[in-house]
Predict the structure.
Amino acid sequence: MRKKWRYIWSFMLVILIGLGIYSNVSEDEMNVTNKEPISIADGGWDSMQVHNFIAAFIIENGYDYPVNFINGSSIATFTGLTTGEIDVYMELWYNNMEEPYLEALAADEVVELSTNLVTDDQGFFVPTFVIEGDPENGIEPMAPDLETVEDLKKYPELFTDPEDPSKGMIIGTQSGTVIHDILEEKVNTYGLNAYYNYFTPGSAGAISASIEKAFMNFEPWVGYQWSPTWTLSKYDMTRLEEPAYDEEVFNENFGTEFPENPALIVANKELTERAPEITAFLSNYETSSALTGDALLYMQDNEATPEEAALWFLENNEAVWSDWLPEDIAEKVKAALAALD
């Protein structure tokens, strides 16, 4: 009889294991297996990718959700957010996506969770040594009265276009972007097109390389920059003044300074019901242009990937991200970071 019960218990144990009721898989592993992945939009630019990996590390290690990234252009990934193919957008630049974003809000397709960061440092920049010189390196001021975009009309020969020495050269940004068209019209609106050619670089890397070269050789440079970028975090540059922002004028011909541009964290509406703890975390997520710029500079100086920069951020800014989380979740994230050492 005893032998008979031993067989019965053995048979029941096999069934329990098969059903997953009895298992040596950890509770956390079972939780991850049973949770639907959180999908995050990847628009392809570095700062967005850094924030994607910061959020993903916390979601995976703090909340036990798997995470995947979906690549595409800004418009394509935002469309995916509205349809539910994508759950989260970590860096939606409001001024660049205002119309489709407001339409999606009105249609109750997306929900705004937080403002990740805000930039008010966007426009035409020159290296500060162009204006002030650099006494330590024996560099005299090249344009001591250069303060405004209008003042550029005095100095086209300083910023000579090597392909057309009769004019100066203002470096813009890549074609195919919203900001490229705005900058080109700004140059025309300010009448700078009579003095300068607007140059369209082939890539963001080409722009950064031209700035590096200017600082290495103390050469004049003028062009578009914004924060957060590693170049503004590393180099001393001065933004040239434009007329104060006026919404009506800006909408007509972009003839004023740029308005503040918030980078929002936005989620598909259904995520608030499917994973309320994740949307609660993302509602607390807040950084700054300075913090993001530091992570981008770490990438540049260490030839690091966005994922490595995200880990660097988490390891060096515990006081920032721990405030986003309940204490028990923060402890799990700290343990996961410690396990990487």
